[in-house]
Design a protein that fits this description.
Helix 14 runs antiparallel to helix 15. This protein has 15 helices and 27 strands. A seven-stranded mixed β-sheet has the order 8-9-10-1-11-23-12. The protein has a five-stranded mixed β-sheet with strand order 19-18-20-13-21, sandwiched between helices. A four-stranded antiparallel β-sheet has the order 4-5-7-6, covered by helices on one side. The chain is an alpha+beta fold. A hairpin with a 5-residue loop joins strand 4 and strand 5. The longest helix has 18 residues. The chain is globular.
Length: about 550
Amino acid sequence: MIRPRHRIAVLAGVLAAATTVAACGSDTGGGGGDAGPPQPGGTLRYGLSQAPSCSDPAQAGSNQTIYVTRQIVDSLTDQDPKTGEITPWLAKSWEVSSDAKVFTFTLADGVTFSDGTALTADSVRDTLDAIVKLGGAKAPLGSSYLTNYVGTTAVDKLTARVEFSEPNAQFLQASSTPQLGILAESTNAKAAEERCAGDNIGSGPFTYADYKQDASVTLAKRTGYNWGSAVFGHEGEAYLDRIEFTVVPESGVRTGSLTSGQLDAISDALPQDEPQIEAVGGQVLSTSNPGTPFGLQLNVTRGPLRDQAVREALLPALNRQELVDTVLGPKFRPATSSLAVATPGYLDQSARLAYDPDKTKAALDQAGWVPGPDGIRAKNGERLSFSVTFSQVFAGNQAILELVQQQLRQVGVDLQLDLVSGPESTAKMNSKDYDSFYGNSTRADGDILRTSFSLTGRNLSNRGPIPELDATLTEQLAANDPAARAELIETAQKQVLDNGLYLPTIELSQAIGVTANTQDLKFEASARLQFFDTWLSGR
């Protein structure tokens, strides 16, 4: 079966709600333009900067995990990385009710999972039901996308009707994410922990051949795959026979392995690595992540962060350009809002976040936080000191936060760094056991603000009700009109900063080092890797 390119049946305006994604600096793999036509076959060897946390697409959160899990699962829809348009994949068409409560998908015929079972409307129902059962602790992103989920009805074998009790305009774009990728019954029936063992069954262009937690993952090409996304560059099977992912935490070792020919591509290539990579004919591919930029989620119930005046005063205390220039280099940019530039509905708040330490000092003086003998401010015997919990989910995190620590000390704030492992980070995030939590969240839709900051979402600031913000985050779900929804998302960005919930630092960019032989390694709309079109030349 050839992949569907049917006209999309969708009510006017809903499709356009996924507005244009700015593909800032987006590159595609390949050492040159003379590699010739794609050559099927071969094994691509990829160096991950961190071990995948789980083999289950529904539970995947970090980029390194999604690089792996995305390849074994297909989604109902896809999102064009150049235009932001929602396009067919497993669903060849869809309809959305005028109140954005009911989404009806017509599935492509002839699709099978890697265990040989057929994709049906029951598969959609079982997948979404299983994600809801996993819950927010195990599947925070997918659960957020399914807020107010009522259920899925198999209207017939190839028609699935997904219903919500409240408007959910973001769901169409959510249906393109790997977290809502459709899985086989054998996987959906398993408990959360069992779904992390590396035997997940999807309909994607690759399957798990081997999975060793914290060490390596091997994917094998799915023979007979012929229902790829309309965004893909070719039809039929993937070009690569296999992908071997190896966990290589040390940046220098990853780069050395790439330049010596032991690896074909690597994650998190640092600026100092680029000349070495280019010297052997390779290059560093980059693209900006949409979603929330990296930043500190400030726990409003802890220590001096209970004082909103303190939280707001911190915004101009950071020299974000210095963070980029010192640690990351020109492929990255400073955060200029509570959303990244590549996110639909982004609002430039660079003036609000402009570096002005004198403004911070004046605001803290006015709030009664006075410098002590060691330069750290205090009020009523309480020092202006708090910690930031973080993991090395991104290679630059520690160096960035060390510089943030120095910048905050210059205005009388003592920031303590709390580096934890990936599992510890998840446990602390779920329990809210931190003063502040450092991270980002990638998604090519402004609804990521609701996922991150709403009372029913992650709510890492551990806040109580804020009526204006709560209303905005809810109202954008009911807005089918793209312009109206964009306006609400702009308002929400301002409200997040107005309430001192977030201290943005830098925007995440993917920086992928590739050899001259690695061709057409591509980024999808949410800046994750797509290996379907990738091939190896000169082999």
